[in-house]
What we know:
Blueprint: H1 15-33, H2 42-66, H3 70-94, H4 102-123, H5 128-149, H6 153-182
Helix pairs in contact: 1-2, 1-3, 1-6, 2-3, 4-5, 5-6
Amino acid sequence: MEVNQINKSLLADPAPLGLAAFGFTTFLLxxxxxxxxxxxAVSVVMPLAFSYGGFAQLLTGAFEMRRGNTFGFTxxxxxxxxxxxxxxxxxxxxxxxxxxxxHALGIALILWGLFTLYMWANAMRLNLALNMTFLxxxxxxxxxxxxxxxxxxxxxxxxxxxxxxxxxxxVYTSFAIISxxxxxxxxxxxxxxxxx
Length: 196
């Protein structure tokens, strides 16, 4: 065995951390998108977006890379970066350094939807819980993107509802992985739609 080779059985699975960071940050923002909390609540979302949604997912992505998990590395690093993107956008707008173009924001969210679409295509081969996380995240990004582009409150609220469903599946997956690491096969993750 090479000196720099890792014994993967001795490493903790970083995915539950990244899924919890993603899920709980998404839950909070979805309260705003769904119209349950006012837009001023974004000031509470931002610190969470940087510290948990952003930083914890980037950290998770680094550990997934170390474990050789290309899917996990790409997903967690990308969505961690998304939270930094969103947080900086709101922060710079608040400081009046930039003016947010709703059309550009809409296109950016739709592009994140396209990225999520091809991640979802691969999540179909993992387990049902992750499959549902990426499916509803794709729907959320598309609804939010078109809602921003057309300044359509109804679409934005639908995106918020899809965000709640996304967050539920992400948090459930995190909880199930942790539970199953303590007592094997405590909670089901569901079978993949397609075999690897």
